[in-house]
Design a protein that fits this description.
This protein has three helices and two strands; from the N terminus they run H-H-H-E-E. It is mostly helical. It has a domain at 23-70.
């Protein structure tokens, strides 16, 4: 739920995506996404977005919490 709250703050322009998720990191860079659990997968995507997504490009991130897709 914490991640969902952070995403909502980003959507409402209360904070930036980089600032909200700045502490996320990937523990194993060589682990394929399909072998990661949900938390590792989310962390990897956030980390990539913060460090690799070209400026002025965007990504839609869908996040499932308790069976609901946000």
């Amino acid at each position: 739920m914490e991640n969902l709250r952070k995403l909502q703050e980003c959507k409402e322009k209360i904070t930036t995506f980089r600032r909200a998720f700045s502490k996320f990191g990937v523990t194993k860079n060589d682990k394929p996404l399909k072998e990661m659990n949900e938390n590792e997968e989310f962390s990897a995507l956030v980390n990539w977005t913060i460090n690799q997504l070209p400026e002025y490009e965007e990504m839609d991130l869908r996040y499932k919490v308790d069976g609901k897709l946000y």
